[in-house]
Amino acid sequence: MLTRRGRRQTLAALGDLDLSLAGFGTAPEPLLLLALAIVLDLVWPTRRRPGIFDLGAPFASLASRLAQRLHRPGRSQAKWLFRGTFVTLVVMMVAVAVGVAVAYAMAAAPFTWILALFLLLAAIAARPPLEDARALAKALTARDHRAIAVTILGAEAATLDEAALARATAVNLGRRLSAGLLAPAFWFGLAGMPGLFFAVAALATARVLPEESPRFAEFGLAATRLRIAVLILPDLLAALLIAIAAVLTPKASARRACGALTAGRNRYRLPRESLAAAAMAGALDMPVPAQALGKGGGERSAPRWSGDAGAVLRAAAQSDLRRVSYLYGVTCVLTLGAIVLLVLAKFAA
């Protein structure tokens, strides 16, 4: 129970709150706004959201349009590299300019924090990966589960069996955790709205100009390198949070999560894979599957199992997917808790 002095201090603090309409229109603490956006993203089902909830879509469209105009055949590799760098710089400049405009509007006009909350919600994607993992776990009992896996994991999922699909999902969730939650949160906390738009635009540009694509081998080099720079610190933070979340997750190991980043990375991490993906797979001791190729370079179809063997493997894969979902959810909650602690520490200072 509060002492008499504690009650007086609490009442005095409540008396200082401005509950008027003007006070409500003032922008709250940015980190508090970020925490609210994460909460809304986690509790609001994706299927019930409007289609406009994708902050990166306009920048991806801009990069794609510029690439169509400037990426012409018959040019030298040096010209492709220069033009790809130009496209990336233009998109980044537009993104930062929009972020500065939004930040200025938040400081100058009342109630614009609602727009900022909407933009944060459109930039954060913490719930969709969790929904995808649950959908795949539910679909494993159906005959068309491989088609659902392809829509979630990509074309390589067609060559994976049920156990490998669960492990590929762990890698997918780790990768999307750093890009969909930690990167927007980190850059918004570091540089406000300009930082948020910068990070979202960088990831969107790299998505439409992938360096690994033969078409954009040189044209997308700058966008890919910028994506790596944007994700390097958020990816490390995501891996550390996964290691902490493993302590709170049944049958998960924080030691293996940390080991996946160093000595065990060859087992839990594919080449050029993110640290968060390695930590997610390592915490649950799920070595990542490599796509198997048949003779002549053709893809080998996934093995089929019948009878009790197939049922046992599907049940094991569903159990793995539940563990992955649990670890991912705990990591999201820990991220939210860390932001709230930062807010409290700032107010206490």
Topology:
Elements: H1 4-15, H2 21-25, H3 30-43, H4 57-70, H5 77-108, H6 113-123, H7 127-139, H8 145-153, H9 162-208, H10 221-247, H11 254-259, H12 265-268, H13 275-283, H14 307-348
Helix pairs in contact: 3-6, 3-9, 3-14, 4-5, 4-9, 5-9, 7-8, 7-9, 7-14, 9-10, 9-13, 9-14, 10-13, 10-14
Describe this structure in words.
- The protein is an all-alpha fold.
- It has one domain.
- Helix content is 70%, strand content 0%.
- The chain contains 14 helices and no strands.
- α4 crosses α9 (162-208).
Q: How would you describe this structure in keywords?
A:
349 residues, mainly alpha, 70% helix
Number of strands: 0
Strand and helix order: HHHHHHHHHHHHHH
Low-confidence stretches: 10-24, 291-300
Distance between the termini: 25 Å
Estimated structural class = mainly alpha
Mean pLDDT score? 83
Content of β-strand? under 5%
Report on the biggest sheet: none
Broad shape: globular
Whole-number total of structural domains: 1
What is the radius of gyration?
A: 23 Å
Q: Roughly what percent helix?
A: over 70%
Q: How large is the count of helical segments?
A: 14
Summarize the structure.
With 349 residues, the chain is mainly alpha-helical.
